[in-house]
Amino acid sequence: MVYENPDGVRIGLEVHVQLNKLNTKLFCGCSTKYHDSEPNTHVCPVCLGLPGSLPVINEKAVEYAMKIGLALNCSIVEQTQFHRKNYYYPDLPKGFQTTQYDFPIAGEGKIVIEGEDGERVIGITRAHMEEDPGRLQHMGSIDKSKGTLINYNRSGMTLIEIVSEPDMRSPKEARRYLDKLRSILDYLDVFDGDLEGAMRVDANVSVFMGERVEVKNISSFKGAERALLYEIMRQKNHIRRGGEITLETRHFDEARGVTLSMRTKETENDYRYFPEPDLVPLRVADRVPEILKTLPELPDAKRARFVKEYDIIDMHARALTTEIKVANFYEDVAAKVDPKAAAVWVADILKGELNYRDLNIDAFNVGDIAEIITLVTEEKITESSGVEIIRTILDNGGKPQDIVKEKGLLKVEDDIVAKAVEEAIAENPEAVADFHAGKEKSMNFLVGKVMQKTKGRADAREAREKLIAKLSE
Amino acid sequence: MAAWTDISNIKQKIADSSAEEVTAAYIETIGKSKINGFTTVWDEAINTAREIDSNGHDGPLAGIPIAIKENISTKGLSTTCSSKILQGYVPPYDAHVIERLKEAGAVILGKTNMDEFAMGTSTESSCYGPTFNPWDMSRVPGGSSGGSAAVVAAGEAPISLGSDTGGSVRCPAAYCGVVGLKPTYGCISRYGLISYANSLEQIGPLATTVSDIATIMDVVAGYDSRDSTSINRENNYSDALKDDVKGMKIGVPEEYFGEGIDKDVEKSVWDAISKFEDMGATYEKVSMPHTKYALASYYIIAMSEASSNLARFDGTRYGLRAEGENWHVMASKTRAEGFGTEVKRRILLGTYALSAGYHDKYYLKALKVRTLVKQDFDKALANVDVLMAPTMPASAFKIGEKIEDPLSLYLADVNTVPINLAGVPSISVPCGFVDDMPVGLQIIGKQFDENTIIKAAYCFEQNTNHHTRRPREVA
Fold first, then answer.
1. Which residues of B touch A95 (CB under 8 A)?
2. Which of A12, A3, A7 has the alpha carbon at shortest distance from A232?
3. Which residues of B touch A45 (CB under 8 A)?
4. Residue A190 lies in a domain
5. Are residues A97 and A231 in the same domain?
6. What is the domain extent for residue B74?
7. Are A287 and A188 part of one and the same domain?
8. pLDDT under 70 in chain A at which residues?
9. How confident is the model at residue B4 (pLDDT cuts 50, 70, 90)?
10. B330 to chain A: nearest residue by CA?
11. Which tens digits make up the pLDDT trace of A38-79?
């Protein structure tokens, strides 16, 4: 089935990724671990843009950027260079942003996503390095604010801006692209996606091959999907009413779920790019072979290997390889138990239970799930008991063995006790009659018999309950 | 006691009395100054000298007072680029050169006047008013490091640091009759130097003798990891102080003696070249055909970079802050009030040159010309050891004479800016007088070959007496 794309939607995304796993900022030695710090405590003359300060490139940031470029199948430029993007804003302490212009570190590349009608290749236009500005904090709401505070802790953090071709045909594909991008970045261990502001998205969207509209201020993947759905609808309605779509920049109002016009082409900024004289051009092409060696197995490759090596279905392999932590978790489990069973348990069951509780894979341990899977595959417990154990561990903690005992989930144990109960009743009709006649003590006799038959493995109270239940049938 | 003197003399004075007495004498002299060369005298100077006296110091500049241009960051000491917009700004850190000077035991006397943001050739555009030439108070000291040159010429400081973007050390050195060096680009860390045009400028020393220039260079030059354009290269500049230029090949670029050059200045320079011949050097005329485009290229590049460098002065974080109902109004008003006319002119021209539609026509073209100018130097210096030319086409002009005519001011830089475009080193030494005003000889060398031009300058100084003449105003 081929996706028709009835509205001629074309979406291109610009994703800013903050490389918050670097120890220091892009051009100075300030620590990047500012997320829990007081404002303006992770600053120095360089990231405050004090007069006379000069930038020095963080070599590790270059390495991370190259890793990202290579992971996105991009060409790596021979020599990369930084430019100044000139504009005035209070969060920009130098009055320009140091970024890359005509020699971005990574050129054309591509990634594969699960599109509307099967696998779809999304082109990457480029990926370039730049510095993050500071952050404005309005005192109160933006329209009623008495003043604005500026926190420069973020100023100078390393950003990688990844620009895609307009190859996505629906908000869903855009979402899939973002998920895939995040998955790849997650594998590269270059950023912590859970930290605030780690990934920021701008979207370019057009319908019916018309002019593109840029939508800014999208702060989450869910937000991206919503913003795009709204914007496509808005453009379609506008055209239907006889309007024309012109080049413009719009702002996504997350709370209201709408996009609002910020500026039209006539008022577009002229950034007056020119090469940053304080940084020398950087030869990077020579370092490609060495960086390639450090590149981990990426999601697509891992997924293919899982299918082949563990003989699991592609759907499971995909679910298991989205996050590197889950993939590693699965492989550890697969080393202990049947890989196919492990795939079902980790991909379908455990991930579902984790997701329901908004937990990640760190909340569970390999030994526990392996033990549960073993209990099920050896038919000592039922599948639903297995699920119950997982839920119990997630909700209350504990170890599988203890939970099995506490809840009496062992199938085999059940059978033995049930059998012993039946035998005890059949072999002792007198005691049974006494019980029915209201002689409570006869029950103690029957319990004793069950205990004798099970060689003490049965729980006395459980045996009593089972006897009563049986006799009450 | 403080007067026109050199480091070795001061060392003797310190030995005879104390660093404190020497510094106190300079501060006293500065107090009586009529030239407006200093913007600030540092109240810590005396304490620094006292500490050196009590604790001893074996640094090469122990107890030697030095004056610092207003655009070099000094921790705890106002650094304003002689601009209203930076009033009240006190850097929280020292420039690399200041760290080096402090380690060497130098006593920072204070800060010196300059053209606002180093944009000028006369030190008239300062928010602190003009500095006067000690040789003739009605004349400019040159610029933009006019204060740094004038205070040395006036005996208010034995040595100083300036910065040279398009001649800003050499021009005032020539006009004030002192020695000034513009080192090879990358020789001295720019960390802490408030940028005017980053790709062109270098910090440079000024002194009364070539020997002192070498001593200062030994202290302030060298690699600094905080400046990405700093070059990691060891050199001993004092090793160059040898009285021997036998066999040295001098190139004399015809284009530096072109239209507009003062005949007497030209004669002084040719006399100097003859002196070199007498000392055993030979000369030949060389051609540097792109020189005539250098000025235009220089101004476009410098202004373009400046337009971006000066964007940070918006009243948000430091310095002057005007009132305004919102940030954009506040920033605009701050810049309108804080920058002087010449600075505004250059920001506007630079912004224009970088704007869409003009970028290729001006900025890119200027870069191409810069490459051609560089090639001129490569070719000329392939066959000769040094180039010699007048530093300035004429001696110091009158205060107020050119300030209303920016183009004629820009033209005064015609012989100095090509050197900055090429990034090569150049030293200006006194080589005579025209109507009692000093004339500077410019000796230009190959990249990182400071030692050859220092040697030539030293040799010239040893065999002439131009440098011994004192300004009348302060004699």
1. 308, 310-314
2. A7
3. 91-93
4. yes
5. yes
6. 7-246+397-474
7. yes
8. 141-143, 265-268, 411-414, 455-457
9. low
10. A90
11. 999 999 999 999 999 999 999 999 999 999 999 999 999 999
Asked whether residue B270 is assigned to any structural domain, the reply reads no
CATH for B465: 3.90.1300.10
Give the burial string for A46-77 (b: 16+ CB within 10 Å, else e).
Answer: bbbbbbbbbbbbbebbbbbbbbbbbbbbbebb
Residues A351 and A466 in one domain: no
The residues of B annotated as belonging to the active site are 69, 144, 168
Complex confidence, ipTM: 0.95
Cβ neighbours of B190 in A, within 8 Å: 52, 54, 278
Q: Does A203 share its domain with A334?
A: no
Query: Counting Cβ atoms within 10 Å, is residue A382 exposed (0-12), middle (13-18) or buried (19+)?
Result: middle
Number of domains in chain A: 3
- Of chain B, the end-to-end C-alpha distance in Å amounts to 12
**Residue B339 within a domain:** no
Cβ–Cβ below 8 Å for A90 and B316: yes
A3 inside domain: no
Q: How many other C-beta atoms can be found within 10 angstroms of the C-beta atom of residue A160?
A: 27
Shortest CA gap B252–chain A (Å): 31
**Count of domains observed in chain B:** 1
d(CA A115, CA A4): 12
Segment B352-396, tens digit of pLDDT: 999 999 999 999 999 999 999 999 999 999 999 999 999 999 999
Asked whether the beta carbons of residue A90 and residue B194 sit closer than 8 angstroms, the reply is: no
Residue A115 lies in a domain: yes
Q: Are strands B65-69 and A282-283 parallel, antiparallel or unpaired?
A: unpaired
The answer to whether residue B423 sits within a structural domain is yes
Do A320 and A271 have their domain in common? no
Domain residues for A464?
A: 411-471
Contact B311 A280 (CB under 8 A): no
Q: Is residue B99 part of a domain?
A: yes
Q: How far is B305 from chain A (nearest CA, A)?
A: 8
Residues A304 and A281 in one domain: no
Type of residue at B270: W
